Amino acid sequence: MGECRYSCKSAVETLAWINDIIHLLAPYSSLINAHVVNFFKDRLWENVDAEWIECLRREPVQNLLLIPSGAVQIISDSVLRAQDEWPTSLKEFILKLRSMVFCQDQADMNMAIPGLQMTSLNGVLAQGMNVKKKHEVEILSAVISTVANSVKADAIVDVGAGQGYLAQVLGFQYQYPVIAIDACSHHGRVTDARAERIKKYYTSQMIKSGSGIRSLNVPRTITCNVLSIDSLKTLVEISLTGDDLEQSSLKAENQEDLGKLHWHSYANKKSSIVLAGLHACGDLSVTMLKTFLECKDVKAVVSLGCCYNLLSEERIEDGESQCGFPMSHAVRSTSFSLGKSARDLACQSAERWRSLDMYAGIHNFELHAFRAAFQMVLSKYYPEIVMSSPSIGRKGKALRRRHQRRSAESQLHLKGSTCHTTQKFPPNAPLVSETDWTLGSISAIQNLPSEIPCTERSGSEGIKSDGKFLHFENFCQSGLSHLGIKHSHDINLEGIWKEAEPFADLVGPYWSLRAALGPLLETLILLDRLLFLQEQGSALEACLLPIFDPNISPRNVAVIAKKIDKDLRSS
């Protein structure tokens, strides 16, 4: 795989990297901006080098799943073989993309953050966390604590706190005053109830040990939808001390309510606050970084973003735009924009693709084929529906759970069959993008077979079979039902499928090539955020640091920034 030869230690280096990415992406705008739901209708494969498509059409599914990771050398039949039959231009494309992606291999944390002291979570604090959440909270809480200590923080504000897992570890284990902000009032209630149970545990432990009762830092929750920098600045200034707040939980429905809370603020106090966010969604991560610059009390920020598809993006003419991308002045000045499809594509994870087994890969590509063929049905018989771009939500998680259950039940019956194993979907490894499956993640998918035909090809064997039309028909009937449309026998579903089926084996190669662009688009978004901070000059220091194992948590790059004390700068 290509190794990244770029650096982002300075604004000049970061901008050079960004400019090279923008230059590389330009020729592939049609691939980036395509909607896979229109794959058959718009014959999207014709927009890709025909030699590439024909080559990948013959590749095993396992090889396609490795393309987003930059693999052009594949283990096949236990023998390492270079893809000599691949066109040179295809190999260069994949390697070039990968060479420009920010390396997301987990950093050596002790080297990257001197003084970091990682502590395993006890059973009480870890209760309710899955493996992914425990991994994230255990590492991130230690990072935040180290950063908070370096700026002598009085308090930590957890933005987009969810059910308060991170806030509670920072409060009870690291003993920082914490305020947990989330838009969902249910999350606030869950956080408070869980904190009370943890408080009882720690109190009982102190009584048993005879060490005396010390004050516990129980996180205080605020329910508020943070829509602007001003609202977050107000929340940051709200006092976290027990003497100033009579309630452990506050609710602010709007800016007026925030004004009523503001009398509790640190306005007349000199304070040091750290903003923290574990996968703060969409523009919320952007708002955190801007608040870090604009609020004098915020001395540091540790932010991991997610849901790039939800970032706002406006036209570049507005030099002071508050949109989520681009953030930096330099990128705004290029008039470059991503667009909705590119932001959605940035959510694709090479690690998730690589973790899929052959059967899950085939299954996902089949679902894309069904969805794209269903789009042909809508375009031909219900064009007004297509124009309105309706959304019926995503049901991929429920599908995967059903598939896992059926796979487990069916494995006993498969031991004597020609297939050696039928493997399960990894629990959080979807290939289905949120944009492409606006209409497609339908409950009808539950009618697909739990066993996938035993084939290693992405070609006709993997997608064409006598039973495929039946599954496509069920898919369409359920899809129409969700749209409130009664199925009509006048709809020639068989004709639609016969038109699409000869090209169904091209879905995997096409979608794999698109997904290879995802990590580079994410790199661009991350570098833009870093450059936004670097443009402030010597007033602060900032870096990007991959703190999680990307196989456990793919969105693993933290933006870490601290304001530099004026006395230190002048010395």
From TrEMBL:
The Methyltransferase domain covers 132-313
Going by the entry's taxonomy, the superkingdom of the source organism is recorded as Eukaryota
Spell out the Pfam families in the cross-references.
Methyltransf_32 (PF13679)
Q: What is this protein called?
A: Methyltransferase domain-containing protein
Origin species, per record, is Vigna mungo
